[in-house]
Amino acid sequence: MTSKETSPGPDREPGGPEYGFPAALWRRLARARPPGPFRPEVWRSPIRGPWLTSVFGAVLLVTLPIVVVTGLLSYAAYGPHLGQAIPADVGWLRLPYFDWPTRPSWLYRLTQGLHVGLGLVLIPVVLAKLWSVVPKLFAWPPVRSMAQVLERVSLLLLVGGLLFEIVTGVLNIQYDYLFGFSFYTAHFYGGWVFIGAFVVHVALKLPHMIRGLRSRSLRTELRTGRAGTTPEPPDEHGLVAPEPAAPTVSRRGALAMVGGGSLLIAVLTAGQTLGGATRHAALLLPRGRDSGDGPNDFPVNRTATAAGIDPAATGADWALEILGGTTPLSLNRDRLTAMAQRSAELPIACVEGWSTTQVWTGVPLRELARLAGVPAPASARVLSLESAGAFNQALLQGNQVLDPDSLLALRVNGAELSMDHGYPARIIVPAMPGVHNTKWVRSIEFRVG
Length: 449
Known about the structure:
Layout: H1 3-6, H2 23-31, H3 50-77, H4 107-121, H5 123-137, H6 146-174, H7 183-214, H8 218-223, H9 251-274, E1 319-323, E2 329-332, H10 333-338, E3 342-349, E4 355-364, H11 365-372, E5 379-384, E6 393-397, H12 398-402, E7 407-412, E8 415-416, E9 426-428, E10 441-447
Parallel strand pairs: 1-10
Antiparallel strand pairs: 1-2, 3-4, 4-7, 5-6, 5-10, 7-8, 7-9
């Protein structure tokens, strides 16, 4: 047996059955290599190799779990134990039930801001990682052993799941209800596909990543310009180009380009949270840009017109129905404004990633619960004047009703609520997803069980 047969490289013909295929079949498949990207000489970048791939992989290994965990926390914040998270019935994928806390008041703003903001910032890193391993995606024959079957299936699910989450997430940010399917349902299950593939891929590739990182010095690469850039030694995985071209960029330049792309995305998204003049630079989150006037000049996710609110229903005849006790109550706006008022500086954070903090004034929900004869409610059901829509009602947990800063808000920043911000009254609860801070409230039912 020749040395070529005993020590096959990534593009050589193995000569033994240990690769999972009879040698003759392997040689026949290798000779039938398709043209184009399936031929290794097509991929000629001299900076591709285990080290650069491992650097991108290490960044994603640290940051993608943060995106995953904050995404799952966002689902938990919608109250799956109350049956209002989307999707509602997830079978054995059900997360542990718990009451989403109201403190700190910026909790949901932090978790969802990290989920969306970090997810967007990582797009250049994801694309760079895919670029670094693209020759592997076109390896021929596609599989050589059962271990490689598992690796390639996990890679397919990993890349497909990640790209699906990115594309649908970005489109959901940019466009209102674009899909012919539930974004929330698809994003949830797509996320679990990615999680499973990510765990398998890390288990298979972590030792290779560690070796790749140790193969070169980061400090040395950051000091090496294009003139000094040389290809890595041939590797067993076929990442290094067999016929490398002259370098057009150094590894330092590639890292700078990817890092610069991530920094640019951060600049273009951060204004949705920082507010003020920086909001005009937030080009990637236009759904949070609609604003009102004066004290009501802050983002609106859904206007009164878009929600189909009849102005007549919010006029002088409007009254809040309070249910749950032995006798229903009806409180018009004059009676509500005559009650003891409380002001609280609270954020509204949206699932699309934008958030804003304003000073809200209104009647504490726990005071309304006391009036209803349910001083310690287990939950509360809030209905909106909005007749249709996925979020024309919300269920509040008992701790959310009883928090002292949970309000039926009547004013914001010292002024009356505008129609687009929920006039004549809206719900404001610390740390709750924005869509559950119901606008145009028509009734609240306090429940004991």
